[in-house]
Amino acid sequence: MSAVRKPWIGGNWKCNGTRASVEALITSLNAATLPAPEAADIVISPPYLFLETVQARIRPEVHVAAQDCNAKGMGAYTGSISAEMLHEFGINTVILGHSERRDIFHETSEEVALKCKKALSLGLDIVPCIGEHREERLSGRTNEICFAQLAALAAQITDWSHVVVAYEPVWAIGTGLVATPAQAQETHAALRGWFREHVSAEVANTIRIVYGGSVSGANSAELARCPDVDGFLVGGASLKPEFAAICQNMAAARTH
Ligand SMILES: O=C(CO)COP(=O)(O)O
Questions:
Q1: Residues annotated catalytic, as ranges
Q2: CATH of the domain at 189
Q3: Which mutation among 234, 239, 247, 250 tests ligand 1's pocket best, with the greatest number of atoms within 8 A of CB?
Q4: What is the pLDDT of residue 3?
């Protein structure tokens, strides 16, 4: 029997936005037709400077997430933001270990896991990101890479009830090269199998594993029908009106 997992759709705005464009996005999302809050969790993740504005202005059923936090807390950590600060500002979710953080800012899986532990200790929901590079997929190492990233997380996480895992194959991010539904389903099922083997059947059945990488209004309906794809982490298309369509497509796929 498969568990009923509530769809989760995130919009990762990355390092994009001006006061004017953020204003326009808020206005557009507030006017859009979105799934009911019971049908899907919708989370948008603007850059830090815009968090407070977005939090204040976005419709209440849309949650707001940060794109990173440090593992340290408050202190002499120039340039970083602590989980305590996010918590104080009412930002209850944080994306961690995005491949851009890993590849451009050299974060290791161990550092990502420590950030996850810190954010969870403050009561935040976390969205750790995992995924393989193109050459790793081509050499048949997708599962090996993703499982190692999960194992690093599992060394620091005991309670998985506040975790949404984002599977984002690096070769699909910002490239227009979306994973096929068969590729997405195969890897998501493998990740769920990893949880069954290394954590518990309960966590395997309940944890939401979302797909990221060139998700669009056009391809989201088909991906949403994959039984182990519980939602999406959307980059470029989350800056456009089609984000609402992606949310609708995901929720519709789970409405029987
Ligand atoms: O990195 C992503 C979301 O975190 C995906 O980005 P794109 O949707 O632009 O490929």
A1: 98, 168
A2: 3.20.20.70
A3: 234
A4: 64
